Amino acid sequence: MSSPPSSQTAAGQPGLEGGPPAPRRGVVRLVLLCGLATVLLGAIVAIPAYLIARHDQPRYPAQLPRVSGLPASVSTSLANLMELSPLSAGPAPGFTLTDQSGHTLSLASLRGKVVVLQFMDPHCTDICPIVSQEYVRAYHDLGPLASKVVFAAVNVNVYHARVADMAEYSRAQGLTSIPDWHFFTGPTRDLKRVWGGYNIEVHAPNPNADVVHTSAVYFIDRAGRERYLAAPMVDHTKSGTAYLPARQIQAWGHGIALLARQLAS
């Protein structure tokens, strides 16, 4: 399934011209399939139409007017690539979950550091491994400031929610090379509460079906406030294999690092 980024001028979304845009906390921006595309038709039947990523958008949109409220260090073309938008600097929804090392942590315990937060499926073979590569690139791009940034993800697969699942995925994707990496999981009720707080839609009808979920990266500042939101992207070969050109992965990693650096400074 090809999942192009949603248009930044879609109805109900903030405009790109004039004053500062409204926060995007309430907008479902992108839904992606994790796993094989062959089961997609069966999964989509139960999903409301507004959750399905549009297919009529170009894979990499043309230059758009710059959204106000973004750091000057992030170019307009990079902001467009990341579908980047500023948030209202309200408190990030709190949670307490267990990471891939078995450590139970709260979001509040990470105060004092920038948190880059994504939502991942540990059995995903689609966009999640792409975002993982971008995380690793961003970590190395940060240099000395890396110690001030936490890279984190919350599990979206309730059928694979063991700590061991988070640990296996983290090792396989090279995320253990990031000293402050946390792949959080927990009881289904707790995970669903976190998804709701961050407006993440998840559709997983049974243990054998692929997980369809909103893909979003939140940038949380050292005071625990939501500052920016980005929408990861992925493309697919004719055979259905997920990929993103190396230059795009590099650009995304650099963009994550630029935003984290700005919030950490």
| Whole-number total of structural domains | 1
Indicate the mean pLDDT: 82
Which CATH architecture? 3-Layer(aba) Sandwich
The CATH topology comes to Glutaredoxin
Strand order of the largest sheet: 2-11-10-5-6-7
User: Given the helix and strand composition, which structural class is it?
Assistant: alpha+beta
CATH class: Alpha Beta
CATH superfamily: Glutaredoxin
Sequence stretches where pLDDT stays below 50 over 5 or more residues:
1-31, 36-62
Sheet of most strands? 6 strands, mixed
Structure description:
The protein has about 260 residues and is of the alpha+beta class. It has a single domain, classed as Glutaredoxin, CATH 3.40.30.10. The protein has a six-stranded mixed sheet with strand order 2-11-10-5-6-7, sandwiched between helices. It has a three-stranded antiparallel sheet with strand order 1-9-8, with no helix packed on it. It has a two-stranded antiparallel ribbon with strand order 3-4. Strand 12 and strand 13 form a beta hairpin. The chain is globular and about 45 Å long.
